[in-house]
Structure formats: C-alpha cells, structure tokens
Amino acid sequence: MVGFLRFQKLSSLKRVFSGMLIIMTTFFAVFVLPIWMQQIVLLVANNIPAERMETNTELIEHEVYRLNKNIERLNKKLDAFVPKNHYLIVNSTHNEFCLFKGKELVRKGKCSTGSYLLLEKNENEKWLFKTPKGEFKIRSKTTNPVWKKPDWAFIEEGLPVPSPNHNSRFEYGVLGDYALYLGQGYMIHGTLWKRYIGLPVTHGCIRMSDDDLKVAYNKLSIGSKVYIF
C-alpha cells in the first residue's frame, strides 16, 4: 500500500524538476505574464507627457503587439508540454488533486498525502513517510486491491516482522475498490478512514474518496501522467 524512501536517487530529482517545470511554466504563462504586460503598458503611458502622448501612441501599440506575440509563442511552447489525454495533478501541500483532459478540468477534490513522520527501528533502518514529488505515470491498475504489508507496518504496530510471503502480510478491503500503481510501492487508492481525506496522514501513497477514486480509475489509463508537487 505504501512506499518508503531510504535514499534520494538522481532519477527522483529529475522527475521533481520535470514536474515542477511544467507547473511553474503553466502558472507563469497563464497568470504572471499577462499582468506584467498590463503593468508595462500602464507604466509607459503614465510617464509620457500629454503633449507627447499622441506621438508615442504608435510606440505603445507596437509594444503591446510585440508582447502579445511573445505570449502566443510561449503558449504554443506550453501546449507541447500539456498531455492531450487525461492526467492528474496532486498538490501535496494542500492535499488537493485536479484531474484534467488537455486543458479541461474534469474533476477537483481533496486527497491525502504523506505525513512526513519518521519511523526508526534502529540506526540503519528508518522510514520517512512522505509522498514523492515529480512526474510519474500509471504503471498498472486493479480493482479490489490487496495490501501486502511491508516490514515497517509490523514495526509500527510493535509486532515481529514475518517472512516475505507470510499470510499475515496480506490484508483485504483496506485500499478501497481501486488502486493505481505509480511504482516504487506508491499507489493512488481508497481508504477505510474517509474522515481523514484532505489531511497529510498517509505513509506516502495518495488516498482518495470512493467517488473521486472511481472517476480517476476510469479516466486514467496505463501510461497516464501524474504530477505531484
């Protein structure tokens, strides 16, 4: 059900930078650049004496035209980064998700991500329960998933760690009706503890409510992008 990170790998950093680049570029092009353009035009206009305003009108119009062209050029570059099919964006700070198809918002809601709690068995065995950030993809998906409990689940409960395939490792019905696998032990799945949706309480996985999870499962395909920041 839950993954853990013992070491930060270079590949994880690359996924983080890639995902953050897409998010920051989108925000800049959609929100920041148009505001900057308006402020530049107002600044230029406010500092031109009245007698020179008519003379400089053409210069202002030319500058507006140039800025609009730059915005169009940046939007075309941005479009190349936006997946055409369904994809998921997860805000792990606010524990919210947005499901998109292209630029169309399909669904938005609350989710739960990593608690950032640290579990220590000894000096050499430690688990930090955080949700990884970056660009991921759906590697597989299933209905009625079964949780194979990792070692830390037993240590957390103060129980002895069983053999890798011991019957006590398998729990049914705790992950909801669906699960989408991101790799390295991380999943998007349901939960029995629905009242905690929207809070950072997981061991690294992304939990959704039953209705939101069903939509995500039906819309996201194998290979669909998941961006976590």
Q: Could you explain the architecture of this structure?
A:
The chain has 229 residues and is an alpha+beta fold. It has one domain (1-229): L,D-transpeptidase catalytic domain-like (Beta Barrel). Helices cover 37% and strands 24% of the residues. The protein has four helices and 13 strands. The strands form four sheets. Strands 3-2-1-13-6 form a five-stranded mixed β-sheet. Strand 1 and strand 2 form a beta hairpin. Helix 1 (10-46) packs antiparallel against helix 2 (50-81). The relative contact order is 0.21. Mean pLDDT is 85; it is low at 1-11.
Layout of SSEs?
Layout: H1 10-46, H2 50-81, E1 86-91, E2 96-101, E3 104-110, E4 118-120, E5 126-128, E6 134-137, E7 140-143, E8 146-148, H3 151-156, E9 170-172, E10 178-183, E11 186-189, E12 206-207, H4 210-219, E13 225-228
Parallel strand pairs: 1-13, 11-12
Antiparallel strand pairs: 1-2, 2-3, 4-5, 6-13, 7-10, 8-9, 10-11
In which order are the strands of the major sheet placed?
A: 3-2-1-13-6
Low-confidence segments, ≥5 residues, pLDDT <50?
Answer: 1-11
What top-tier CATH class fits best? Mainly Beta
Strand content: 15-25%
Tally the helices.
4
Secondary-structure element order, N to C = HHEEEEEEEEHEEEEHE
Question: Structural class, please?
Answer: alpha+beta
- CATH homology superfamily name: L,D-transpeptidase catalytic domain-like
Q: Tell how many strands the DSSP assignment holds.
A: 13
Q: CATH topology, what is it called?
A: L,D-transpeptidase catalytic domain-like
Major beta sheet summary: 5 strands, mixed
CATH architectural type: Beta Barrel
Residue share in helix: 25-40%
Radius of gyration: 24 Å
Mean pLDDT score, rounded? Answer: 85
Distance, first to last CA: 20 Å
Count of folded domains: 1
Shape: elongated
